[in-house]
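Design request, tokens follow.
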């Protein structure tokens, strides 16, 4: 294995769910649903949901629905749907508690 590929592999292996800067002091919850792992970062007003792992083309709509459903389950707060941004890999929005 060449050095560049080895360095890239080691770098990626150290990557996990890292919050956006606004969530650095947020609470964190690691959740599994339907065999897939998610990390949820949340404050009293905002939430970020990150899907971990690969998803094939036909799975994105169901994953997005799961991510939206996780928000009230994990935070105990209601999502302000008009604020939701992102896709099936990462999404952020405002919550009302």
């Amino acid at each position: 294995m060449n050095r560049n590929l080895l360095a890239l592999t080691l770098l990626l292996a150290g990557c996990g769910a890292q919050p956006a800067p606004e969530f650095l002091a947020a609470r964190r919850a690691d959740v599994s649903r339907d065999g897939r792992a998610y990390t949820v970062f949340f404050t009293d007003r905002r939430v970020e949901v990150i899907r971990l792992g690969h998803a094939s083309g036909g799975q994105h709509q169901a994953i997005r629905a799961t991510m939206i459903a996780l928000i009230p389950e994990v935070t105990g707060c209601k999502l302000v749907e008009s604020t939701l941004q992102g896709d099936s890999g990462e999404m952020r929005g405002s919550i009302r508690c």
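Comment from the thread starter after seeing the answer: thanks! Confidence is low (pLDDT under 50) at residues 8-14.
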